[in-house]
Design brief:
The protein is α/β, with parallel strands linked by helices. It folds into two domains: about 1-30; about 30-290, Rossmann fold (3-Layer(aba) Sandwich), CATH 3.40.50.1820. The protein contains twelve helices and eight strands. It has helices spanning about 1-25, 35-45, 90-95, 125-135, 150-160, 185-190, 190-195, 200-210, 210-220, 245-250, 270, 275-290; strands spanning about 50-55, 60-70, 75-80, 100-105, 140-145, 165-170, 230-235, 260-265. A hairpin with a 2-residue loop joins strand 1 (about 50-55) and strand 2. Helix 4 (about 125-135) crosses helix 5 and helix 6 (about 185-190) packs across helix 8 (about 200-210).
């Protein structure tokens, strides 16, 4: 009987291992965006095709999808979660009412076409790369929209570059370092042996989440100096980012700089309630609308 159990356990382990290898080696879960596919959809909507650009920072590359009105002084910068890619924001990139703004959606470092599989587990490091991309669009004001880990990066950007970041919209944001859990098992999964069977996008995700608590702790002293209007959407049924994040935000951010939007949904409001998120983005844009003008296109 014991022999049968051991034999079955070994067979089950080999099947699971084989499936993990298949997923890892075939790229089934690479989370890469398909620009041609999205542009075919945009054509059916009567929208101009999205373009792509890259910026080099040292030995790292940041790939960004560009759309909308490239002469607009107002830019919407979309930052995806972990794992993910630029096309996580496709519903907003294809929103006809947003085409009058410059639309920017990068693959965050380690994902998509931005050195896929090579993690940059540092909010400060990722902020440096995103700001290098922003430099390609001089004179712009940026409304930064983040989902999940993208919110952590958006908050870093708000502290690093408050003169260019006009507003931040958080959707399910991990901001409180005390709410970051599971670091021990994440470090275990980062053992080199597991790299052989872990899809690259998930490996990068795991590596940047290992350091997130420490990165968020570094931001704690800066909260009292926040001078960028920040809008936070948090779902009460979110099982991945705790609803208590909203309490942290309300405690830490200066009252004039904060506005919160409780939502009954889960972690995926960004896709399941696009009209709600779109409404909040619209509110964030209002403060800048009166000064909108046209400026030369970026080279």
């Amino acid at each position: 009987m014991l022999r049968r159990i051991l034999r079955f356990s070994g067979f089950f382990f080999m099947v699971i291992l084989g499936l993990l290898l298949l997923v890892s080696w075939t790229g089934i879960l690479d989370f890469k965006g398909n620009l041609d596919k999205v542009n075919r959809e945009r054509k059916s909507l009567g929208l101009a095709p999205l373009q792509s650009r890259t910026v080099q920072v040292g030995d790292r590359t940041l790939y960004t999808v560009v759309g909308g009105d490239t002469t607009s002084r107002m830019a919407l910068l979309f930052l995806h979660g972990s794992p993910g890619a630029w096309n996580a924001s496709e519903p907003y990139l294809n929103d006809t009412s947003l085409q009058r703004y410059l639309l920017l959606a990068p693959d965050r470092p380690g994902f998509g076409e931005s050195d896929f599989g090579e993690a940059l587990p540092s909010l400060a490091g990722q902020s440096l790369m995103v700001r290098a991309m922003m430099d390609r669009w001089p004179g712009r004001r940026f409304v930064v929209i983040g989902h999940s880990y993208g919110c952590s990066l958006a908050q870093q950007l708000a502290f690093d570059d408050p003169d260019r970041v006009a507003a931040v919209v958080h959707v399910a944001p991990p901001l409180d370092p005390d709410l970051e859990v599971g670091i021990g098992w994440r470090k275990f999964l980062d053992f080199p042996l597991f790299h052989l069977v872990t899809p690259p996008a998930f490996r990068v995700c795991n590596q940047e989440l290992i350091t997130l608590k420490e990165d968020l702790e570094l931001l704690l002293p800066q909260w009292s100096t926040l001078r960028v209007p920040t809008y936070l959407i948090q779902g009460a049924a979110d099982k991945l980012v705790f609803p208590e994040e909203m309490d942290f935000f309300q405690k830490m951010a200066p009252e004039p700089m904060q506005k919160v939007y409780p939502h009954p949904g889960d972690h995926f409001i960004y896709w399941t309630d696009v009209p709600f998120v779109r409404k909040v983005i619209g509110e964030a844009l209002e403060v800048e609308e009166s000064t909108k003008s046209q400026i030369p296109n970026s080279k």
